[in-house]
Each structure stands twice: as structure tokens, then as C-alpha cells.
Fold this protein.
Amino acid sequence: MEEELKAHLEKFVCLSNEEWEQIVTYFKRVSYRKKENLILEGQICKSNFFVIKGILRKFFINEKGVEQTTEFAIENWWLTDTFSFLNGSKTDFYIQAVEPVEVMQVKREDYLNLLEEHPKLEKYFRCIYQKAFAATQMRIKFIYNYSREDLYHHFSTSQPEFLQRVPQYLIASYLNFTPEYLSEIRRKSIS
Amino acid sequence: MEEELKAHLEKFVCLSNEEWEQIVTYFKRVSYRKKENLILEGQICKSNFFVIKGILRKFFINEKGVEQTTEFAIENWWLTDTFSFLNGSKTDFYIQAVEPVEVMQVKREDYLNLLEEHPKLEKYFRCIYQKAFAATQMRIKFIYNYSREDLYHHFSTSQPEFLQRVPQYLIASYLNFTPEYLSEIRRKSIS
């Protein structure tokens, strides 16, 4: 199953078998149970997680004590608190398995050594972060500009797989809705 | 003044003089007048802009017809609509000079050729996008979690230089406040 990561790297860079065999040693394959936390608020987010199977979500507990989901990651997506991961600071977030999850995880020191030893992966991570940043710039526009109903429709059109796989209350948490409000919008869309 | 870009690249990678002399040919130094638009909504954002002197802002016209500022860039910051820049799609944004601005700008094809010819710059751009993405992940948390007053205080503590240099109505536009509401918060902070 590590082959999933190899295939993803090879979308951006060519690797020999020998290179891959070295690269994979920097990663650890780990399984998490449904609802298991990979990271808790207050910890240092020491790893970056590449999802091989399942879904992760990232959330924080807001000032009202409610879980606010800020990101999901399905197969072939990376997820971490990048700020905590890079700076070794404590995270404000939780990362949790929405379904049983298999990840390839890489620790910060291993990530830096990996890039040092295999500089061709700089291109891979440059492309990954570039795409992620582009998407987040757009997301900020959506948050400011879209009505709550528009946000739902944009999300359901652009990420139909999430709607199928993620429980309703987590979709509501991502869109900053109450579950009741989400049901109402969905009823309106169907009718 | 191109030396500003050289110094910034050298924070992340070592360059020989010969390399720098080649690299700089991919960039064009351009001056813009105060309030001049570098990019208009509906255009393809063909360049990425590195600010040597002055301030840029990025904004869109929201559904109420009001300018909503989403980003500022001062000296040593990059600014573009990354999605439009990468994909050659039309942008929803404007990029405008807040003050008279000097930039080093690089076109998409030149950016890709530059990385092809000088792969050591992959590390530079990986680090730039990584930091930008980390900051934007945090910003989404702030937008969801902070009261409007907290947003102002966070902004004024983390970016004091902007408060000094950027006109009040643009700070208000960035924080999604009316100028009147911003004045009210400032009055409260001072008293």
C-alpha cells in the first residue's frame, strides 16, 4: 500500500526503484481506528500525514466549546498543522480519523533529512504546497463572499466524494453550520 | 535594487554570482504608481510579483459591490492569484498598488523554465509556499474563531507595520469591517 505514496510522488518527479526504496524508509505506515486522535491540542504536531486509505479531519474547539472542522483529507492528501509541524510549536488543533485510516507519516527531522538526501523531492513538495496555498487563497474568498447556502453548494459540487463519505454533522462543522441548518439546506436543494 | 530579491533567495539557497546573473534574467523590474492596477478581475494572472518597495493589495468586488481586501504584500513578500497563475484561468481578483511600488515580476512560463534550469530554486519556492500555506491555515482558524475585535487586535499585534503604512479604510476592508466600526474599535483600544 506504500505504492500509493510512490504513485503520488511520481505524478511530479521520476524516481528509480533504488531511490524509492531509500525514500520509503523515512516514512512509517500507521493505522488509526475510527475517531482515534492522531494529534491533540497542546501537543507539538511532529508528523505530516499522507492518507493511503480513509479520511482524516482537522478541527479546533472554538470559544463556544464547539468542534470547528477546518480541513478534511482523503486518499492522496496530506494533512498536518503546518505551522506547528514546521516550527515545533504547540498546536491549537486536533487531527482525528473520521473512518479507519491508513497513513504514511513522516516526522519533521525525517522530512528535512529526506529533502536533504533527495533534493528532487523539493519539486514534489513545492507543487503540493503551491496547490494547497492556491486552494486556500480561493477558500478565503469563498468564506468572505458566499452566503451559507452558496458555501454548501460550492462544497457539494467541488467535493462530491466528501458528501458521500463524511457524516452530516462533520460537513456542518466544516461549513460552520448547525446540523439543523444543513438539513434545511439539503431539503431545499432536493425539492 | 534587484539585490533585495537575491538576498531573499539566499535566505534559503546558496547562489554563485554566475547563477544569480542567470536567474535575474527571468525577472522584469517594473514600477507601478499608487492605485495602479497590476491585475484586473477577468484577466489571466500571468505574473507573480515580488515586492521590492511599497505595498500591494489583492481584493475582489463582493456581491454587495464592495471591495474586499484579502491580502497585502510589503517588501520581500510575493503576491499573485496563485490559482490563476498556475492554471492560466481568469482571476476573480484585482491586484493594486497601495503606495508607489517596485516589483520583480516573473511570468508563468519563465517561472517554470527558471525552476527547470535552476532546480535549486525548488527549495526556495517550497519554503515560500510552505510558510504561506501554514499562515493561511492559521488565518482560517482566526476567521472562524475570533470576534471582530479580536481579529483587529491580532492583526495589529502580528502586523504592526501594516497598521502604520496602510490607510484605515483598507485595513477595514481586509478585516471585513466598515471603516466606522474600525474607528470605534481603535477608540476603545486607545481609551
About this structure: The mean pLDDT of chain B is 94. Strands of chain B lie at 28-32, 37-39, 47-53, 56-61, 67-73, 78-79, 94-97, 101-107. The two ends of chain B are 42 Å apart (CA to CA).
